[in-house]
Amino acid sequence: MSKTTITMDELLAASEITSLRAGDVIEGAVTEVKKSEVWVDLGAHGLGVVSRREITGAKDLKPGDKVTVSVVEPELDEGYALLSMRRAAKDRGWDELQRIFDEQEIIEITPYDANRGGLLVEVEGIRGFLPVSQLAAGHYPRVSGADKDEILQKLNALTTKSIRVRVLDVNKKENKLIVSEKEAVKDDLQDRFAKLKVGDVVKGIITGVIDFGAFVNVDGIEGLIHISEISWERVEDPNKYVKVGDTVEAKIIAIDKDRLSLSLKQMQEDPWLHEVKAFKKGDTVEGKITRITPFGAFVQLSPAVEALVHVSEMSDDDSVDPEKIFQLNEKKKFKVIDIDLEGRKIALSLKG
Q1: Which of 45, 65, 206, 282 has a CB 3.0–4.6 Å from the CB of 246, allowing a cystine?
Q2: DSSP state, 269?
Q3: Number of H helices and number of E strands within the chain?
Q4: If you average pLDDT over residues 311-328, what whole number do you get?
Q5: CA angle centred on 213, ends 212 and 214, rounded to 5°
Q6: What percent of the chain shows pLDDT beyond 90?
């Protein structure tokens, strides 16, 4: 009978005991709690030690308590392993975040800080970021002229609010976590969009007033009232008509991919149609010059009616310069040469 020699490696393999590796997350039992460290029995893997700064969770550990630890160093010179409860908790946090991402789960977070780019958040012990661009309409900081200090002020106001988000990107190797409020409300918004149609009247709150109009939060859906749809009058400054926080009723005039185009003026009768009845083709009228352009001048005939005197109707001279004939706000008399009710246009002549 031949004699077989079995090596230690073969014995280990046969017993299916794998060696500890840095990064492994395992469970052990506390054997001793000291002022600056905690000793943990790792079963077949021997003993390990956790320094006080690497302890998380329950602070009042006692012998016999089960703990989950991460291996920092598999074997120190003294023969035991260096462990971390903090790192294990973080590893579990990454695993949970990956699950949340994979399942597209919606979670609630409360930001702990803000900068001009967005909100700082912490989920499952992992710090991450909620960019401004990923905020839903109700929380997006609409400010005039992109005032960075005002943006930061509005974002800071969100650090005490609970916000529903989805994980947009999670990467343990790059230590990256990005969350999105827009993604969390997307499905709900699509359902709301499906119930809306052009012509509907909706109620909303003004969230921002800018040079070209005003933004409106319509039950979580973002709407825009363009400056041309604020009033039948010529609007130079939207701030004179609406303010942030105002509740308004507006008509939907277009539905884009993720935004409503709204109109305030179409909630009222067009005064132009009433006032234009005072003018007839061939009438001599007096009006105030409101704008001067290379192709002509615009003339205010009544509060709602503006007309155009084309450069060809200013003089028989083809090289006439409107700026040499007119001055802003001066009054002159003209002849009405055409009224287009459908196009809402009146043409004037200075030539008589």
Answers
A1: 206
A2: -
A3: 6, 21
A4: 88
A5: 145
A6: 56
Pairwise CA distance, residues 312 & 345, whole Å: 17
- Average pLDDT over the chain reads 88
φ and ψ of 30, to 5 deg = -65, 130
**Percent above pLDDT 70 for the chain:** 93
Cβ-contact 111, 130 below 8 angstroms: yes
What pLDDT score does 303 carry?
87
Report the CATH architecture of 196-267.
Answer: Beta Barrel (2.40)
Domain positions in the chain are: 23-90, 104-185, 196-267, 276-349
Residue 40, pLDDT above cutoff 50: yes
Instruction: Count CA within 13 A, CB hemisphere, residue 117.
Output: 7
The dihedrals phi and psi of 309, each to the nearest 5 degrees, come to -105, 110
Question: Measured between alpha carbons, how far is 217 from 138 in angstroms, rounded to an integer?
Answer: 6
What tokens appear for 58 in the block?
Answer: 């329950």
Fold of the 23-90 domain? OB fold (Dihydrolipoamide Acetyltransferase, E2P) (2.40.50)
How many angstroms separate the Cα of 305 from the Cα of each of 266, 299, 302, 344?
16, 9, 5, 9
List beta partners, residue 251. 201, 263
> What CATH class does 104-185 carry?
mainly beta
